[in-house]
Design a protein that fits this description.
InterPro entries: C2_domain_sf, ComplSys_Reg/VirEntry_Med, Sushi/SCR/CCP_sf, Sushi_SCR_CCP_dom. GO terms for molecular function: complement component C3b binding; identical protein binding. Keywords: Disulfide bond, Glycoprotein, Repeat, Secreted, Signal, Sushi. It holds the Pfam family Sushi. By secondary structure, the chain is mainly beta. 12% of the residues lie in helices and 30% in strands. A hairpin with a 2-residue loop joins strand 18 and strand 19. It is flat.
Length: 292
């Protein structure tokens, strides 16, 4: 005789039981019951929430059990300089049929300072991502691109809250400094748009990149870099039992990119697996061969 689970609805069919129909009807009844339970909201699941600039409370504990069952409540907070729409530190969200409710999000917080050469009613206040602030510039000044508003976005203010004079727009300050090099002319405190300066490196350093940079839209183009030279001291040669093939021993300088050839000292042989005798100076580094 078929044994019914405790609490399950019973079907009375003693005459059909020998034919197996009662078992079949029972299975159909169980499937219908499961379907109606799902229709009432059971069986709902949500993917574990991934919140940009946000952290889920006890994330390492709950994430392995993803997806999260319906009705489960989780809490999240936002990173520094970001806040939830409610501005609470810990924010509850619940898994529903429509997904997480309320939708978890972290919005950027933008502090609005006082306006240089202008003013705004928002001076000294904080705003959230999406807020638009009106700025009034003093006579003869304007925001970048002649705008009158700035917007708080995910990366901060859309443009600096600073009113500038049209006469100074596009100018650049002193050109950027570089290691082991400098410009070939005297540095000025201010440069007109489309001005150019030229760089040079110190002795034995190799210039990489464009040696001339230009001021455009108030910014300098990328400056070059000066690659380190390779210094080959006598004690390094002694340590590896090698000598220079084409030069006399001593303190040698080679520019980055130059090839240098070595050979074993008399009475020595190249160590198996040693780097080749011909090596290249790469920004101050040489892969030395070794002899034994």
């Amino acid at each position: 005789m078929t044994k019914f689970p405790e609490g399950a609805p019973r079907l009375e069919c003693p005459r059909l039981q020998k034919m197996g129909f009662c078992r079949l009807l029972f299975l159909v009844n169980v499937l219908l019951t499961s379907w109606f339970s799902s229709a009432k909201g059971e069986g709902i699941h949500c993917d574990f929430p991934k919140i940009r600039h946000g952290i889920v409370y006890d994330e390492k504990k709950y994430e392995p059990f993803s997806p999260v069952p319906g009705g489960k409540i989780l809490y999240y907070s936002c990173e520094y300089n970001f806040a939830s729409p409610s501005s609470s530190f810990w924010n509850p969200i619940i898994c529903t049929e429509a997904g997480w409710s309320p939708v978890p999000k972290c919005l950027r917080i933008c502090f609005f300072p006082s306006v240089e050469n202008g003013h705004s009613t928002s001076s000294g206040q904080t705003h959230k991502e999406g807020d638009i602030v009106q700025i009034v510039c003093n006579q003869g000044y304007s925001l970048q691109n002649n705008q009158s508003t700035i917007t708080c976005g995910e990366e901060g203010w859309s443009i600096p809250p600073k009113c500038i004079s049209p006469n100074s727009a596009g100018k650049c300050g002193p050109p950027p400094s570089i290691d082991n090099g400098d410009i070939t002319s005297l540095s000025l405190p201010e440069y007109a748009p489309l001005s150019s300066v030229e760089y040079q490196c110190q002795n034995y350093f190799l210039l990489k990149g464009n040696k001339i940079i230009t001021c455009r839209n108030g910014k300098w183009s990328d400056p070059p870099t000066c690659l380190h030279a390779c210094v080959i001291p006598e004690d390094i040669l002694e340590k590896h039992n090698i000598v220079l093939r084409w030069r006399e021993n001593g303190r040698i300088y080679s520019q980055s990119g130059e090839n240098i050839e070595f050979m074993c000292k008399p009475g020595y042989r190249k160590l198996r697996g040693s780097p080749p005798f011909r090596s290249k100076c790469i920004d101050g580094h040489i892969n030395y061969p070794t002899c034994l």
